[in-house]
Amino acid sequence: MDMNILVVGGGGREHAIARALSCNSDVTIFSVMARKNPGIAVLSKRYLIEKETDVGNVANFASECGVNCAIIGPEAPLEAGIVDTLQKQGIPCVGPTRLAARIETDKAFCRNMMEKHRIPGCPNYRVFHDSDAACDYIDAYEGDLAVKPIGLTGGKGVRIMGTLDGGIVLEERLIGEEFTLQAFVDGNHLVPMPLVQDHKRAYEGDAGPNTGGMGTYSLENHLLPFVTHADYEAALEIMRSMVAAMAVEGQPYRGILYGQFMNTRDGPRVVEFNSRFGDPEAMNVLSLLESDFAAILCRIIEGTLSQAHVRFAPKATVCKYLVPEGYPAAPVSGAPITVGDYGGAILYYANVGEKNGRMITLQSRTMAFVGLGDSLAEAEEIADRAASSVTGGVWYRHDIGKPALLEKRIKHMKEIR
Ligand code: AMP
Ligand code: GLY
To answer: Is ligand 2 within 6 A of the CB of residue 178?
Structure first.
């Protein structure tokens, strides 16, 4: 059955979405992105260069192209109500409405939902709108706290802000090892994807400032060595409970649900929920997807996910992001880069420009390589060799997916348990 699908967003995550859709020759891809992603552009019949949050223009383009449905990559257009606008024009979406997206866009809403519906895994937290009261609380608190602005931070993550624009959530600092569980959700039913571990810190050995994510890996059994089956089941149950709670509140959640968990001494606790695929995590799981992605999107929209048989290849993946020199504090844009022979890896473009016929860096993460293998070692070697083929003003973390880092995680988990 011929299908016209709109992909919103222009990063590595959306390139992975477009590539997965392109495996079905009956699918025609249309896309909207703020900057031209050459990988998405070649897969698209037509593309519009437009801010993804300009929902009116996106909707006009969608109607013009006669798309049957849309999938929304980033969180910003979800917060801007892109799903509400598209649905009003009769275009069903894979992605939550503005109100349902609050599980990500409003951290106070997320924590309050977890508390109200007694969903396990919620850290102790307090919401503040007054900076004096917040400071008093911090002074009196024994132990470490995570300080989170309530709203989106554009991937800049948790840090202390000078002012209290819109409030903050103070929550107990969780100790453990982090993992990501993503799932397809149709409003009621949830189909999980393989577990992934992201690396938020900029430098090797998990040092330096937080970033949008420097790279990720997943294992051939779709679990992680520091996550037991019981931990996995507990995390999945937390996600199911959140979806059930949203339905009870009259805000059914449809789209991709991303759970960021801290595996602690007492099992998984929720660091955050996101209302979309992770970037880079989407590149790991979508590179493994063996089932027809377009058919899954249809089931999400129709609410028939419980009948789906979703298969992922039993392989390990490693994703390495190349980032501009100086990233994240002072990224150098405009530096020419050359991609060499990247072997059997998959190349996903993120933020690249063009100058005098050459590819150049921009301010954000540049491009990523995903290696697939029968073992993590094989996947890592493929990704690393591919990443090292790129010359010019970019760098990447060599340690992601290597045994030393994994051993450190396993040892840490043993220590706290
Ligand atoms: P977020 O902005 O919620 O994605 O958080 C960014 C990163 O901060 C997470 O990936 C964690 O590494 C860390 N973090 C957030 N919340 C907590 C918490 N309650 N305890 C410990 N670390 C946290
Ligand atoms: N990789 C983390 C995120 O997409 O939020």
So the answer is: no
Tell me if domain 3-94 and domain 316-408 are identical in fold. Answer: no
Q: From 3.20.20.210, 3.40.190.10, 3.90.600.10, 3.40.390.30, which CATH number describes the 316-408 domain?
A: 3.90.600.10
Show Cβ contacts of residue 280 under 8 Å, excluding neighbours closer than 6 positions. Answer: 12, 13, 198, 213, 215, 216, 319, 321, 368
Dist. CA 242 → ligand 1 center (Å) = 19
Q: Ligand 2 pocket, 328 CB below 6 A? A: no
Distance CA 67, CA 6 (A): 6
| Any ligand 2 atom below 6 A from CB of 284 | no
pLDDT at site 153: 75
Q: Where are the domains of the chain?
A: 3-94, 124-173, 316-408
Report the b/e string of 174-210 with b at 16+ CB within 10 A: bebbbbbbbbbbbbbbbbbbbbbbbbbbbebebeeeb
Residues 6+ apart with CB under 8 A from 135: none
Atom of ligand 1 nearest to the CA of 158: 2
Rounded to the nearest angstrom, the distance between the alpha carbon of 274 and the centre of ligand 1 is 12
Which fold does the domain 3-94 belong to in CATH? Rossmann fold (3.40.50)
Please write the tens of the pLDDT for every residue from 30-45: 999 999 999 999 999 9
Q: Residues with beta carbon inside 6 Å of ligand 1? A: 123, 146, 148, 157-158, 171, 173-174, 178, 200, 210, 260, 271-272
Q: Name which residue sits closest to atom 6 of ligand 1, judged by CA.
A: 157
Ligand 2 geometric centre to CA of 163 (Å): 25
Task: Write out the DSSP string of 1-12.
Answer: --EEEEEE--SH
- Report whether residue 274 contacts ligand 2, using a CB cutoff of 6 Å: yes
For the CA of 278, the nearest atom of ligand 2: 4
Condensed to tens digits (0 to 9), the pLDDT of residues 293-307 reads 999 999 999 999 999
pLDDT digits (tens, 9 = 90+) for 167-191: 899 999 999 999 999 999 999 999 9
Residue 126: closest CA among 140, 113, 111: 111
Phi, psi of 353 (to 5 degrees): -120, -175
